[in-house]
Amino acid sequence: MKLHFLGTGSSFPTAKRGVSSLALQLDDGCVWLFDCGEGTQIQVQKSGVTGQRITAIFITHLHGDHLFGLPGLLCTISSQLGEEEAAKRVVEIYGPQGIQRFINTALLISCSPLLFRFKVHELVPAPQQYPQDFDDWQLGDGEPHHTPTHPNQLPGSSVTPVADEEGNLHWPLVDSEGWCVRAGWIHHRVPTFGFVLAEKERPGTLDLTKLTALGLKPGPVCRELKAGRSVVTESGRQVRPEEVLGPRIPGRTLVILGDTSDASPLAHLTQECDVVVHEATHGDALADKAAQYGHSTPAGAVKFAKKIGAKLLLLNHFSQRYTLADSQDGEESVSVLEVEGQQAASGSNLKVLCSHDLFVYEVPARPRTL
Amino acid sequence: MKLHFLGTGSSFPTAKRGVSSLALQLDDGCVWLFDCGEGTQIQVQKSGVTGQRITAIFITHLHGDHLFGLPGLLCTISSQLGEEEAAKRVVEIYGPQGIQRFINTALLISCSPLLFRFKVHELVPAPQQYPQDFDDWQLGDGEPHHTPTHPNQLPGSSVTPVADEEGNLHWPLVDSEGWCVRAGWIHHRVPTFGFVLAEKERPGTLDLTKLTALGLKPGPVCRELKAGRSVVTESGRQVRPEEVLGPRIPGRTLVILGDTSDASPLAHLTQECDVVVHEATHGDALADKAAQYGHSTPAGAVKFAKKIGAKLLLLNHFSQRYTLADSQDGEESVSVLEVEGQQAASGSNLKVLCSHDLFVYEVPARPRTL
Lengths: 370, 370
Known about the structure:
homodimer, alpha/beta, 9-stranded mixed β-sheet, 8-stranded mixed β-sheet, 11 helices
């Protein structure tokens, strides 16, 4: 499982650094994309990510540097998919309310046919997520907006928040064999979400030598044993799963956040996490500016990462004022932010790294336990 | 006056070649942009074009590779403009009906403030411009669509076609001191326009030595003389404009087209032209494919360029199957298209060149005549 950082800059893309996008390549080869700023499809081409394998897209919020690359990316994926593969593919798109209006308007105005089908699942923000001036944008008038449907669109869902006993909110998104994905809200200038991706624990590896010695042949019995059910050999011996299965494979937890000045409303969703991706738009010297625009400094990101028991904090969404870490031009570079983060984390077990465009992080497996 | 080719590829952008965009840098420093595919703002940064000087944007048609970079470009220009300059700036945007819905949806959904103001002028296509399947896109239902207005938006216009005595159509767009810009329709899969930019003839240069010898001082009299009116010296002598003005400076004509399989419906708009920018998506070997998708080959572009008496034909919008001309990888390159165009033009006075990303063409002045 690998995280591919496609764009790690904020606000506007440059030739050297793209705007927000991050691809999670799963163990089965599928790719989940998080945010899709302008130029993401170019970054995908430069990376080791196979765009045609994107099956789900999660958008944290609707600012342009996280969104404007989406219609073009969808069109390009379509043009690269084989017809047979496309006919089977349904791309699931998750994002804040309003995203459907943007996607459909862009695809319909441009008369863009798609070979695959797609669904848009809109996350309905909680009232506390709206800034005071939101109505100025004339999008919160409460009137249902008639968005024509794309010919390849299947009905999506409207995901409303679920409250726990303490009133903490989450938005349930995916509950599949392998994953549970929930969104939580985080503070920013517009309704913004973070995603908590909990990989489910999987049964251990089958010991084929033991299996054969017991007189079993690989095949349907494997599925039974992996599902936790005993099987009976031809000679009538009952074989229990724990006799032939190795230790169970623990799931990992990833937290991927959008822009935020404070992600704490999401913290209740996990008490431990392998890696958290958190923005650090500005350094400590610009902490006031960061707060004013709903952004974080490395120290703020570290505070949150500690709160959720993260082992690794990967920073992204750097102001274009910070040059690339290896830049020779003597200006303030992203390295400054990395040092600030590491200083804030010193004395703890938290590791802090700045990401950069095309940086790949392989999420390590957790130790297996019996 | 310079043409900056920002993106010369078709369909999708790559790290090596952007999609459609072309900047015309006028003699007064203003920049007019033609088409704005995804990544145009990155190409602007790489080029010698000052994005903050863009005062008008012309979109030929609404396919994504000509349009999807527009919201991001507007946001980035705004972030780079000084407050004082921005307060005076009104960006005029011209494009086919529907463009306003796209721009406003993108800017409003993303809560994008702009420092400058803008107007959108929608060109209403003629009935013959609509393909048979256009209604499938649910945009031609005749119902006026309610598009909320951006806080910085001034009312634009709806430009309907004007017919001449023969029934030929044009859309009048700009009639300023320096320019007359008209659009004409051209054949493509969706309503598509080309733009005919006629620079107006200007008065010749004032001969300051003669002016002084006659007892006149530079100042308001210059404006009078340049406007073609005589002035009187303090001693009572009448000075006629032709006594102190050099030969008049002839205007140039540029034709900039969108995607097309046949631009002849626009040909009536000019009988002579300094430079025409015409697409050549495919080479002769793929002429059938070009026609099927509403595109041209170099030979088709040459045919049109001859029809309008062009001196120079600059080709663009190359299929990404054609590698860059200087590519070393042995695949079919854009050079093939240039050779085909030059062969089709051989024996005529027409010059043919393939453009490439960041290619700059300085439009020469015409010889002055008395």
